[in-house]
């Protein structure tokens, strides 16, 4: 077993995959600066510190939502009241819990005869029953306020850090003397904090508002964690900080739009959404390919040349660009519908439905960019789906 583990370890950490030609792990084992300088190169073990930090972020979030976000929501008039509860009925409850939550026409007819109820009344009961366990607007507001606060804070931290970084002004600095680039404490904290936040999203996804795209976003968070971890262990952290900051630029605007929506400040909501759409498209379709991909594909090729992990890293970044194109198209389509029709469909991931026929009619009346049943979204990637709101890159 020990021999097999050693062989697996040697295979995984193969220098010819991870490092440029003529570079070994031994070359990166020492301190890059004078003795006692505290400088070092990224180590694989560093990423383990993200786990306790992620738990700490999750704990801070719980305190934030309870003692800061909730009072803010109440001051804005957001009530802690859920959807209309279904009228108690043992027969329908048994069907709902044991057979189906959305009965077809044949079953509805049978229940109608059995209860001597109108089919529409039974349909309304099942709508109410499906909705009554859904999160309240207060819960969604608190979740979005936490995300808004973190995204805004980490974005400005990233801008402040990168403003004094030479590679922010000259991306070729990402590759000079690579991979012998020392890891500063500020760079380390920025990278590990971003990684810890994504791990906290992985943890909290099981306690957050449940959405239809749970599995998709789970895979997305896992892929993002993998990309951050991979670039850290490969010491591509300089260009990694550019990617992180660029993707943070629009997320807090989306959360701000959702906060305005939950508080029923529709004009403010529409303004934030339009601003979010502009920033998202400019950063993902303009700056990302012509700034980030240009340096990772062409400048790095010129300065250090390709090697196996270089191909993998760029393949992941190019895949991300294809996703940017899809999401941008969906955002543009959503904004176009909002401008033409004066409304947009509700969050496609939300299971919350109209609680009455009258609400169905109301939901088709003129509204702003968000409908009041919008559920919000996760991080940078996955903002819209099928022209409707989902949750960040």
Automatic annotation (TrEMBL):
Boundaries of each TLC domain copy? Answer: 139-340
Question: Which segments show compositional bias classed as Polar residues?
Answer: 366-380
Concerning PROSITE patterns, the annotation shows:
HOMEOBOX_2 (PS50071), TLC (PS50922)
**What ranges are recorded for DNA binding?**
94-137
**Which Pfam families does the annotation name?**
Homeodomain (PF00046), TRAM_LAG1_CLN8 (PF03798)
Keyword Zinc assigned to the entry: answer is no
Q: Which pathway is this protein engaged in?
A: Lipid metabolism; sphingolipid metabolism; Sphingolipid metabolism
What residues does the Homeobox domain cover? 92-136
**Protein name (Swiss-Prot/TrEMBL):** Ceramide synthase 5
Organism of origin: Grus japonensis (Japanese crane)
């Amino acid at each position: 077993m020990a021999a097999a583990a050693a062989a697996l370890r040697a295979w995984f950490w193969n220098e010819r995959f991870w490092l440029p030609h003529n570079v070994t792990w031994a070359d990166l084992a020492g301190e890059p600066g004078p003795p006692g300088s505290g400088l070092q190169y990224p180590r694989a073990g560093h990423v383990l510190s993200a786990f306790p930090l992620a738990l700490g972020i999750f704990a801070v979030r719980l305190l934030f939502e309870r003692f800061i976000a909730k009072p803010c929501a109440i001051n804005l008039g957001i009530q802690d009241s859920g959807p209309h509860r279904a009228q108690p009925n043992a027969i329908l409850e048994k069907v709902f819990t044991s057979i189906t939550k959305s009965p077809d026409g044949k079953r509805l007819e049978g229940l109608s005869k059995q209860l001597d109820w109108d089919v529409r009344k039974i349909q309304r009961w099942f709508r109410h029953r499906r909705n009554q366990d859904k999160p309240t607007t207060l819960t969604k507001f608190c979740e979005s306020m936490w995300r808004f606060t973190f995204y805004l804070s980490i974005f400005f931290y990233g801008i402040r850090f990168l403003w004094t970084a030479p590679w922010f002004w000259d991306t070729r600095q990402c590759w000079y003397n690579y991979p012998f680039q020392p890891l500063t404490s500020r760079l380390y904290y920025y990278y590990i904090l971003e990684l810890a936040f994504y791990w906290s999203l992985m943890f909290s996804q099981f306690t957050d508002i449940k959405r239809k795209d749970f599995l998709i976003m789970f895979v997305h968070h896992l892929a993002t964690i993998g990309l951050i971890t991979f670039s850290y262990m490969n010491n591509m952290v300089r260009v990694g900080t550019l990617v992180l900051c660029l993707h943070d630029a629009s997320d807090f605007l989306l959360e701000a739009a959702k906060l305005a929506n939950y508080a029923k400040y529709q004009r403010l909501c529409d303004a934030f959404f339009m601003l979010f759409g502009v920033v998202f498209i400019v950063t993902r379709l303009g700056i990302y390919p012509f700034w980030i991909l240009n340096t990772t594909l062409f400048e790095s090729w010129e300065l250090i040349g390709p090697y196996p992990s270089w191909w993998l890293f760029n393949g992941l970044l190019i895949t991300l660009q294809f996703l940017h194109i899809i999401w941008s198209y969906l955002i543009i389509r959503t904004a176009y519908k909002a401008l033409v029709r004066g409304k947009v469909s509700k969050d496609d991931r939300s299971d919350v439905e109209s609680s009455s026929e009258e609400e169905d009619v109301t939901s088709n009346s003129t509204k702003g960019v968000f409908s009041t049943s919008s559920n919000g979204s996760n991080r940078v990637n996955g903002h819209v789906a099928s022209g409707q709101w989902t949750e960040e890159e």
